[in-house]
Amino acid sequence: MFDVITNWLSAMGSFGVALLMFLENVFPPIPSELVMPFAGYLSARGEMSFVTIVLLGTIGSVTGAVLWYWVGLWADETRLRRFIAGYGKWLTLSNEDLDRALAWFRRHGAGAVFFGRMVPGVRTLISVPAGLTRMPMLPFLLSTALGSFLWTVLLAAAGYLLRAHFDRVADWLNPITNALLLLLLGLYLWRALRGVLRS
């Protein structure tokens, strides 16, 4: 995964940052934790502007979040519950999971969106309850943009500051990310199989 991301960014430049950060929100196995630090590293080498990669990374991230917001808005809770009842076992989702997510979101509102944008594993889907609960678009966009901006700045700055050691980081990061993806795949298959056996 690391090699794919680094090759893509080297080939596409700053706009590749926006595209990958958008895809990271739509397809979670693409990790922002690899995209933005490598973009920061390229910035430290003078191949990209730091301000540009942060702005484009934020725009890509917010665009992906808005897509999920519209999914939540379109689906509505009743339709989503029917979908989970029929296909949730393949997504390892249950209506109890939805109940917990909605209860948490209703307690914290805009704060859930803001902080959720900086939590791996949560940042991608935090927009769905925002859409389901009809959170107004302006507060949603402000919370999403601010949280996404802080996240991209932190990750890009880490890559920028690690520039002298990035090759060494890459040597151990690539096998770790591959192992993590395999672990996530195994976890998904286990949960999906358990859901099928229960139905």
Notes on the protein architecture:
With 199 residues, the chain is mainly α. The protein has one domain (2-85, 95-168). 82% of the residues lie in helices and 0% in strands. It has nine helices and no strands. α1 (2-12) packs across α3 (32-44), α4 packs parallel to α9 (166-198) and α5 (95-108) packs across α6 (110-116). The longest helix is centred in the middle third of the chain and has 42 residues, at 50-91.
Brief rundown of the structure:
With 199 residues, the chain is an all-alpha fold. 82% of the residues lie in helices and 0% in strands. The protein has 9 helices and no strands.
| Radius of gyration over all CA atoms, rounded | 18 Å
Mean pLDDT: 78
Helix content: over 70%
The outline comes out as globular
Task: Give the SSE string.
Answer: HHHHHHHHH
Low-confidence stretches: none
Structural class: mainly alpha
Number of domains: 1
SS elements, strand count: 0
Number of helices: 9
Largest sheet: none
What fraction strand?
under 5%
Q: How far apart, in Å, are the first and last alpha carbons?
A: 34 Å
Protein name: Membrane protein DedA, SNARE-associated domain
Main location: membrane
Subcellular location: Cell membrane
Organism: Puniceibacterium sediminis
